[in-house]
Amino acid sequence: MIRVAWLVARKDLRIELRSKVLLWQVLPFGALALLLCGLALGPADAGHSRAAPGLFYLVTLFVALLMINRSQAVEQTPGTAESVATLGMDPAGVFLGKTVALAVELWVAAGLLLAGTVVVLHTSLVGTVHALPSVFVTLGAMACAGTLYGALTAGDDGPATLLPILALPAFAPLLVAGERSFSAALHGGALWEWWVIDLVALAGYVAIGVLLYGVLEE
Amino acid sequence: MTTPAVQLRDVVAVQQQFPLLSGVSVTLAAGSLTVVTGANGSGKTSLLRLLAGVLPVTTGEATVLGVDLLHHHAEVRRRVGWLGHDGSFYADLSVEENLTFAARALGRPLADIAPALERVGLAHRRAVRTKDLSAGQRRRLGLAWLLVRRAELWLLDEPYASLDDQGRQFFDGLLGDVQRGGATVVMSAHDALRSTTLTPDLLVMAGGRLVEGP
Asked: With contacts defined as CB-CB under 8 Å, which chain B residues touch A85?
């Protein structure tokens, strides 16, 4: 399982490095969306608003949806799905590999977006750094859930539109917990309780994915 | 008596309530070469996908390489090789990276990659991204993919499409070698094979049924 996971994760990350879709398409989109959030708040409110963590996770959600679709699209080019299926790889390993690759991509994107929140939304640098562990775990859990829902919608018509509808209910608790945790890091409050919710969700999604990814792929 | 490579009896395959195959019965000997012909939508590709263990059997009996396809399709998948219409690999990986991925996934030696690329005439293109290859070169890469994985049953979907005469001759030669090496080959084609060196069995399909067989 671990061997397959390592193989798949390396393959997905290599494809991303070559295609540069994250670098030239997704990250500029995320940066622009964050900038628009700052403009919507206006220069007077941006520095004082408590909406920054929520706006950060909203933009991250858009970025995550794009990356999840992208992660599944590379497997769906004509002939590839059949050919890779006949490699007979352990589905649990494929799930873990795709999740790790997606998580790495989301962490990279989040690094840029967090820097953007400091610059555009004027969040405190120290508070943002304190929020890093919870962002790390929240996006890990989103990568797990996203890989599951991506596989579920990949073979259907219009996966780009179906994915958000199906995945949002799964993402909602993760986003709420992530936002609360980020807010606590910025403004004080119960940081660890929310952080732990995402950790438990991460463990749950990993277990579900390892057990059920093969069924979803079929 | 040797076990047949493929043995189907009254096989029905239904996908999203649409019957793709309707009562197909056929036996293909190990080491044989078979061409499946028929009009568009006749079920050629569906038959190949079923033999690959990718399209589930709804009813009937199906044995591939001596393995029950209904209950052990995962084992069948690891022993067959699939070459689709447009190649079967990751467009943003290089020729060599695609083959390395397949070899590692199957636990095959990486030392098999260089000879396979030499055999299909792609050694000089090993570092090129797959999406930058011509259609004919992607076909050759597909063949290298199957050579590296040492498939026992080669399933080729329209392999002669987008090949020039030189490519067809090369393909015929390779398939002859594969057959002599003991592997079984099943390929789909719109028309009967125009080969001077290969003498395949012919299956004709129409409306998801086998209307003419060996």
From this structure: 52-54, 77, 82
